[in-house]
Amino acid sequence: MTEESAHDRPTPGTAMTDGGEQSNGLRSSSELCSDGGEGVVRRDRFSGGPARSFLSSLSADRRIFEADLEVDRAHVLMLAEQGIIEDDIAGRILTALDAIEVDNHDSLPDGEDVHEAIETAVIERVGDDGGKMHTARSRNDEVATCIRYRLREDVLSAVETTLALREALVAVAEANTETIMPGYTHLQPAQPITVAHWACSYEGAVRRDTARLLEAYARINESPLGGAAFAGTTFDIDRERVAELLGFDGVVENSMDASSSRDFLLETTQALSTHATTVSGLAEDVIIFANRGFVDLADDYSSTSSIMPQKKNPDTLELVRAVAGDAAGSVQGLTTTLKGLPRAYNRDLQRATTHAWETVDAVCKASEVAAGAIATAEWDEEALAAEAGAGFSTATGVADLLAANGLPFRTAHELVAIAAERGGDYDAVDAAARDVLGDPLDSVVDPAAVEAALDPVESVASRDSQGGPAPEAVAPQLESARGALSDDEGTLEEASDALETAREALRAEVNGYV
Ligand code: ARG
């Protein structure tokens, strides 16, 4: 000890041990920053080995890079406002975060994930005080917040995509209220309808897909930050303030729920999968209609064969159809990952997130392509009209007519079924009437009414019950489709504006410090 000069001597209470630790069990701050550029000690100790890349989500986290910076900013502002960290340190950290954003994700130091890498980058710029950023939180509540923050934008994009598809369907319907076409059950001609009626049937389904996404959005839009690892914190934090700064509607109250639940991912992926399923049916219909010469897809949405020069294939719609399978697979993968996970955070959750990202990207693209294909396809009115009455598709209308003239519907059904086997024209119905009733057809019903019922155009016009295919019945459907579309556009705009307003307000608060 005689050699030791006074300034080399550890100050009382912080005696260095040979493990480089202070007597209080903490590494010295100089050591935290001078570990050969490898980052903070925690990383050296726990995840530097062969499993490092297996553990790391850094490249997948590119998607939440901006979200993480915003979450960091809101958290740091709140810590300063609450007096948990000093204003000048908050300012230095916020300045560092801006610089890190400019340098972007590619320049981040190595890290187990984006949260750790950004923290390391902050400490590199600010020094040890940068480590104050992670006061009163954990990566567990941090990552949950980042996912929700980013997913909000993605779900709003998905909502927008469904609105565009609805717009395309309504436009097709409006242009084709009188375009007669065959309607099918079991892929067999069943009853004539119009292209408008067919398009409105999908508009209604996509409208519900929009509603499901908006419902999921409301549950995504709550802040888990402040849940910390899962058990809250000793610091006097203001969770509502952080939620407000990030544009969330409120907080996920229970801290363990906040950090460990991912039902919002499942709900969103399910809603997307449902939409993909709706769109797959639409794609399949158009593929069949194109095959039958009812509709001609634009070249932009078709493909050809590398060997068969005459081919024009509906490849885009086949891929749209396939995306529904991928989305269903993601729901399955996500459910299986989440099933039986104990409280609280488990690293399995890292792999849950990617299912949602993949699904939202693929489904948005598929829906967008379907909308484009629908908007640009040309309907062949003549081919549709020629097939509208095929397979005696007016039979139900003839049976309805007989029933309206006093026959029990079951008797009328039997009579018309016999007529169907005999060709389904007026003479066939008359012959069946003589067999079944013992009387000619004109003793039951006006022959002109039967001729009208046998005509596909008249048949459609007569099915004017609420929601039916008659042009007068489709008109209110179109009106409600337009109304719902503009309501949902309003909701989307409001939600997007709220996010934008929160972003600007957060920026203004940050500017008060940097
Ligand atoms: N990267 C992780 C994820 O995506 C967050 C890290 C939390 N890690 C932990 N060991 N508690 O879920």
Question: Can you tag this structure with a few keywords?
Answer:
4% strand; two-stranded parallel sheet; 20 helices; Fumarase C, Chain B, domain 1; 514 residues; 3 domains; Fumarase C, Chain A, domain 2; mainly alpha; disordered N terminus; 6 strands; two-stranded antiparallel ribbon; binds arginine
What CATH calls the topology of the largest domain is Fumarase C, Chain A, domain 2
CATH architecture title of the largest domain: Up-down Bundle
Number of domains: 3
Number of helices: 20
Bound molecules: arginine
State the separation between the terminal residues, measured CA to CA. Answer: 47 Å
Percentage of residues assigned to helices: 55-70%
Average pLDDT, all residues? 91
Principal-axis shape: elongated
